[in-house]
Amino acid sequence: MFSAQHARRGRVPETLGPAISPSSPAESVILAGKAVKLGDRAPRGMEGMEQMVLKAPGILTFMVSIILTVTVLIMKFFGAEIPFFIGNEFWVLLLAQVVLVLGCVMRGL
After folding, report:
1. 15: DSSP letter
2. Using CA atoms, how far apart are residues 47 and 68, in angstroms rounded to an integer?
3. What share of the chain is helix, strand, coil (3-state, %, to 5)?
4. Each residue of 9-47: pLDDT tens digit?
C-alpha cells in the first residue's frame, strides 16, 4: 500500500504507477493496465480491438434530448397533459437518454 514513507522517498508503488511513463509522456499510454509506447504493437490478445472514443453530441441531438427530458419533467411535476406523451412518460424519458447516448457514441449524430 502507498504510505507516507513512499511519498517522502519520491517513489510510487507499482500498483499505483503513473498513467504515463516518466521517460516521455507524449510517447506512451496505458493500455490494459500496462504502459505501451505509441509505436509498439498492441499487447497479445488485444490485436484488432479498437479504442472506444466518446465525443460530444451534436447540438441538434443534445437539444432533442433536453427538450424531451424537460417535457416529461413538466408533465410529471406540473400536471401538463401533452398528447402522445400521456401514460408514456417513462418511454419518452428513456428515448431522450438513448438519443443522448447514441449522440456521444456514434459519429455524425
Report:
1. G
2. 41
3. 45, 5, 50
4. 655 555 555 554 455 555 555 655 666 565 556 666 666
Residue closest to 52 by CA, chosen among 106, 9, 10: 106
| Cα angle for residues 19, 11, 42 (degrees, 5° grid) | 30
- pLDDT on residue 48: 65
DSSP category for residue 85: T
What distance in Å separates the CA atoms of residue 14 and residue 33, rounded to the nearest whole number?
11
DSSP-derived secondary structure for 35-84: EEETTSPPPTT-TTPPPP---PPPHHHHHHHHHHHHHHHHHHHH----TT
pTM of this prediction?
0.53
What is residue 20's three-state secondary structure?
Answer: coil
Residue owning grid cell 507524449: 26
Alpha-carbon gap, residue 45 to 25, rounded angstroms: 25
The grid coordinates listed for 29 are 499510454
Start-to-end CA span in the chain (Å): 45
